[in-house]
Amino acid sequence: MAYPIFEIEVNQPLPDLFFSKTDTGFAVLLRKNGRAVHFWMEPRPANNKISAAELSRRIAEQAKDKLLSENIRDELWPSAEKSGFPSLTVAICTKDRPEFLYRCLKSLSMLEPEAPGESKTPEILVVDNAPADSRTEDLARSTPAVRYVCEPKPGLNFARNRVLQEATGELIAFLDDDVTVDPLWLQGLKEAWAENTDAAAFTGLVLPRELATEAQIIFEWGGGFRRGFEKIRYCGQSLEGNPLYPCGAGIFGAGANMAFRKDILTELGGFDQVLDTGRPLPGGGDLDIFYRVIRAGYPLVYEPQYLVFHQHRRDIDELRRQYRSWGLGFMAFVTKSYKTDPCQRQKFRRLVLWWFKYQLVQLRRSLRKSSAVPPSMVLAELKGGVVGLLGEYSRSAKRIDSINRLFK
User: Of 377, 86, 143, 116, nearest to 260 (Cα)?
Assistant: First the structure.
């Protein structure tokens, strides 16, 4: 089972698409002048081929409105002045995955400069979190323009907070080690900054790096990490049409690809070390910091051109654990915020009720086979949510206290 991913530039002659008998479907990433503008998936055609003419028809069917808006943008929308972009640190927090880190670093080295002679990459900081061996350090120290730091306390948010201590940039872009950046990733961040110089945080589009296994295809049919191809500026304490805003912090983006002003992150106290601790509680840290940025009154901007490609879990059991971690991390974030932000408690109670209703609807759809996500995944997320709701944040706080005492 595999879905080849075709990248199609609409300003070039369209190709014929060919498929092997082992392909069960395909995905298309559509670009216009290099900019990602649309993504879709569908089953493999019966004749194992899509002609250029048929592809043209499908592009019109899938992305007509988006392409029209891009044409209008190109013709009428003035480009924001990109001078004055702040100094930037790109931070990669990693643990014992040098093969992923190598790919991520290689993609950063291939960023397209905006103008001739412009430096391709800013400061790159690798934070090695409680490593079991020296492989990550050896790779980082052998890679030009990369600065290596070891954070001995195990836990992703310990590593993120170490970044906050070490970074020299005014802006910090956090990347997970299992992503590769689009060649226009940095230009996308600069565009978002130029259009929103008052923003404290930025998130970007996350697309699949491959769809080569059943687990990866299931995950992407379920929506993946995608948040769409439209720019979104979140600001204020309410959002029309969303009565649970900003408590449902998953709308803001994904922690695999996010950036913050260093001074604001410092002002907010950094990341909550009780969340995103690794295996016991592998989630919730990104939701928490997005929520706190908004609650502090700062804008958060989603920019689709700030694009990365994520290495989805290849194994079904790994994917099931990921679904469980989503429920666990989400409810740990909810219970923490319920205690620390009393003004929002009514919204959080309604959010918990909505979440369980939503999961039950998803389970019913899955059992009826009207969803690509199997029941085991929905049940794993439900189980994680229940465990998270029943005191996981408090249990994690005790574990973190023990770690802090150990490293005094």
Answer: 86
405-to-246, 399, 400 alpha-carbon distances in Å: 34, 10, 9
Q: What is the pLDDT of residues 85-138, one digit of tens each?
A: 999 999 999 999 999 999 999 999 999 776 555 555 689 999 999 999 999 999
Q: What is the pLDDT of residue 91?
A: 98
Q: Could you give the C-alpha distances from 297 to 61, 254, 277, 325, 406, in angstroms and in order?
A: 40, 20, 27, 29, 36
Map residue 159 onto helix, strand or coil: helix
Rounded Cα distance between 174 and 260, Å, is 8
Note every long-range contact of 363-366, with CB atoms under 8 Å and residues 24 or more positions apart, other chains counting: none
Q: Are 387 and 323 contacting, i.e. CB atoms less than 8 angstroms apart? A: no
Pick the CATH number of 88-316 from 3.60.70.12, 3.40.50.970, 3.90.550.10, 3.20.20.150: 3.90.550.10
pLDDT of residue 75: 81
Question: Rounded to whole angstroms, how far apart are CA atoms 13 and 150?
Answer: 49
Question: How are beta strands 88-94 and 171-176 bridged, if at all?
Answer: parallel
Burial 193-202 (b: 16+ CB within 10 A, else e): bebbeebbbb
Cα–Cα distance, 385 to 379 (Å, whole number): 10
DSSP H or E segment with residue 48: none
CA–CA distance, 33 with 36 (Å, rounded to integer): 9
Provide the residue count of the chain: 408
Distances (CA, A) of 397 to 183, 281, 329, 403: 40, 10, 13, 10
In angstroms, the CA 231 to CA 244 distance is 21
- 346 in the Ramachandran plot: left (φ > 0), alpha (ψ -120 to 50) or beta? alpha
Contact present, 113 and 157 (Cβ < 8 Å): no
- Rounded Cα distance, 3 and 214, in Å: 9
pLDDT of residue 83: 73
Measured CA to CA, the distance from residue 95 to residue 135 in angstroms comes to 10
- Counting as low any pLDDT under 70, the low residues of the chain are 80, 82, 114-121
| Type and span of the H or E element at 71 | helix 52-76
Residue 261 CA, chain-centre distance (Å), reads 18
